[in-house]
């Protein structure tokens, strides 16, 4: 199964293995952990993160059969720049019988290509689309290079109607609990499996200082009391899964 109980944080909550084929990501999310790490380890300055560049892994010609779920991508997205290489590598992964978790802030043209070219492996694939808010201005602020939330819902609808397994990630939440509820309401009719909800992790560390005012607002909107109210609202909802950032709040305050 894709969504089993894993003991990990971040991507490890969703998968046993990760694959990426490029450095940089056109979405340029200002909370991006990968951009933060690339800058920290002198791999790429933060200001150049939106520039997409293939790594050696993009030239791989085989991929082994692995136990567990393979998440691809985990530190970039599927974009017009890489979609053909993405599909080529995804086929290598799938042709060995692996289960593939595709995580994306999806672009309609790219997702159409992906679901049409990978259709024969449908039973081994789950598509998980990240939507932190249904407010397009909010998404454009935090994720300036990514598609609108409306386009992401269209991708979800299309994948669902083509018979793929679908899931949504509301992580990071880009607003308060009402914003998260709006995403659940918009996405739920097209979700076959799960909707994951999580706070913005380590925002004060990862978001550049010039946006500290926006982080203050997020921290206020995602205070423990509000998160507990969100948790209570969906406590009996089998589709909802909580990321570690919310489990920590619940563990502190109890049910
Ligand atoms: S989509 Fe992911 S990898 Fe790309 S900029 Fe946003 S957070 Fe970073």
UniProtKB/TrEMBL annotation:
Lineage: superkingdom: Bacteria
Keywords: Iron, Iron-sulfur, Metal-binding
Keyword Iron-sulfur: yes
GO molecular function, one term: metal ion binding
Protein name per UniProt: Radical SAM protein
Lineage of producing organism: Bacteria, Pseudomonadati, Thermodesulfobacteriota, Desulfuromonadia, Geobacterales
């Amino acid at each position: 199964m894709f969504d089993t109980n894993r003991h990990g944080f971040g991507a490890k909550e969703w998968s046993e293995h990760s694959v990426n084929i490029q450095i940089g990501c056109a979405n340029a999310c200002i909370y991006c952990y990968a951009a933060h790490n690339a800058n920290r380890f002198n791999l790429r300055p933060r200001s150049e993160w939106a520039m997409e560049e293939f790594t050696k892994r993009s030239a791989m010609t085989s991929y082994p059969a692995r136990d567990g779920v393979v998440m691809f991508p985990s530190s970039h997205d599927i974009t017009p720049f890489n979609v053909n290489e993405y599909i080529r590598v995804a086929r290598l992964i799938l042709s060995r019988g692996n289960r593939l978790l595709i995580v994306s802030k999806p672009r309609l043209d790219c997702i159409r290509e992906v679901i049409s070219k990978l259709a024969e492996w449908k039973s081994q694939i789950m598509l998980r689309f990240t939507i932190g808010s249904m407010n397009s201005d909010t998404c454009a602020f935090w994720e300036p290079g990514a598609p609108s939330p409306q386009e992401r819902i269209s991708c979800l609808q299309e994948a669902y109607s083509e018979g793929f397994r679908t899931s949504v990630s509301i992580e990071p939440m880009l607003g308060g609990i009402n914003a998260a509820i709006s995403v659940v309401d918009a996405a739920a009719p097209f979700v076959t499996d799960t909707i994951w909800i999580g706070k913005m992790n380590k925002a004060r560390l990862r978001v550049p200082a010039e946006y500290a005012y926006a982080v203050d607002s997020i921290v206020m909107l995602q205070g423990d009391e509000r998160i507990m109210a969100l948790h209570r609202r969906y406590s009996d909802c089998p589709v909802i899964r909580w990321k570690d950032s919310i489990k920590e709040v619940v563990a502190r305050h109890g049910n």
